[in-house]
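Running this now, will post back.
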Amino acid sequence: MSPFASVTAFAVAAVLAMAPAFAQKMGNDDAAAMKQLAQDNLNEIAAGKMAASKAQSPDVKQFAQKMVDDHTKMLSDLKSLAQRKDVNLPDNAGVKEMAQGKLMERKGGADFDREYMQHMVKDHEKALDAAKNTAAKAKDPEFKAAVQQASGKIQEHLQMAQRISKSAAAGSSSK
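Update: finished.
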């Protein structure tokens, strides 16, 4: 998951609850951060879909599907905020991430599960740091509040990823 991926989904839900009914322009830095969050969601959705179909462990499959579901919702919410703020978001996963996905597709079984979950732990650790930095720098109050609220969900994803990663590293599945 990219640094801003988890931030995006849950940030948007909070933003929508606070958003005024009229469109407001967003500053360039906030707009760039929003675009990165959308890209990260797209990347996470693509990786999650692959893992949901390829993983061996039921826990890894369930986690991957949760990432798809959560990030699809986050992206949808982010698109609504972006429309209100007049920000154009990307539509496809990044080239680098698609290449990484192709490399991951070559793995199988417990090796795939282990590598995917290790990647998820690292990504969510980065996402927590990114959320703090983005919230500290954000100028748009709605965007800032949304990113601050997203930290709890990112922490939840990180804890799940750490737990599953440990069992995947041991070659087992725990519930």
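The mean pLDDT is 80. More later if anyone needs it.
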